[in-house]
């Protein structure tokens, strides 16, 4: 998947979300993350697309389509975690596990991310978010 194709797909998804079709945007994210060529993009480009879904603020119970979109994000995030060992990826993977109902896996991801981030910058915002996430489980 070229960067241009990724950008185009993300723009279509964001347009759906902004027009009020949240469920359609969740379908779009799920389809994007399940594409075998999604993981061929640069890690930073993958992260940008993943963040739009995973780090968005939402309230209430997640819909079935939102859960499926998060489930679809687990595979590419697992690849990012195993290849790059970035605390931010651990946070996003933990959120995906939490949304899909796997609290134990979520807690493990948050703890691993927190350990890494504490070594890098114990005063970072990410460190604070991860501490909050660990405490909430």
At a glance:
This protein has 137 residues and is mainly alpha-helical. The protein has helices spanning 3-18, 22-34, 43-54, 64-84, 87-99, 103-120, 125-136.
Q: Could you characterize what this model shows?
A:
- With 137 residues, the chain is an all-alpha fold.
- The protein has a single domain (3-136), classed as Tetratricopeptide repeat domain (Serine Threonine Protein Phosphatase 5, Tetratricopeptide repeat, Alpha Horseshoe).
- The protein is 77% helix and 0% strand.
- It has 7 helices and no strands.
- The protein has helices at 3-18, 22-34, 43-54, 64-84, 87-99, 103-120, 125-136.
Rg over C-alpha atoms, rounded to the nearest angstrom: 15 Å
Percent of sequence in beta strands: under 5%
Strand segment count: 0
Structural class: mainly alpha
Overall helicity:
over 70%
Overall mean confidence score, pLDDT: 96
Order of helices and strands: HHHHHHH
Alpha carbon gap, first and last residue: 37 Å
Q: What's the CATH H-level homologous superfamily?
A: Tetratricopeptide repeat domain
Major sheet summary line? none
How many domains?
A: 1
Look at the structure and give the CATH class.
Mainly Alpha
Low-pLDDT ranges: none
CATH architecture title: Alpha Horseshoe
Q: How many helices in DSSP terms?
A: 7
Features:
137 residues; mainly alpha; Serine Threonine Protein Phosphatase 5, Tetratricopeptide repeat; 7 helices; globular
SSE layout and pairing:
Elements: H1 3-18, H2 22-34, H3 43-54, H4 64-84, H5 87-99, H6 103-120, H7 125-136
């Amino acid at each position: 998947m070229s960067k241009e194709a990724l950008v185009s797909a993300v723009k279509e998804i964001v347009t759906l979300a902004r027009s009020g079709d949240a469920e359609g945007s969740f379908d779009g994210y799920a389809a994007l993350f399940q594409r075998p060529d999604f993981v061929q993009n640069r890690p930073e480009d993958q992260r940008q697309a993943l963040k739009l879904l995973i780090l968005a603020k939402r309230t209430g119970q997640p819909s079935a389509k939102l859960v499926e979109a998060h489930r679809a994000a687990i595979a590419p995030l697992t690849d990012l975690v195993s290849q790059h060992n970035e605390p931010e990826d651990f946070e996003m993977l933990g959120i995906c596990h939490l949304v899909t109902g796997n609290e134990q896996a979520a807690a493990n991801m948050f703890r691993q991310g927190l350990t890494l981030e504490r070594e890098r910058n114990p005063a970072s915002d990410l460190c604070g978010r991860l501490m909050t996430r660990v405490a909430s489980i």
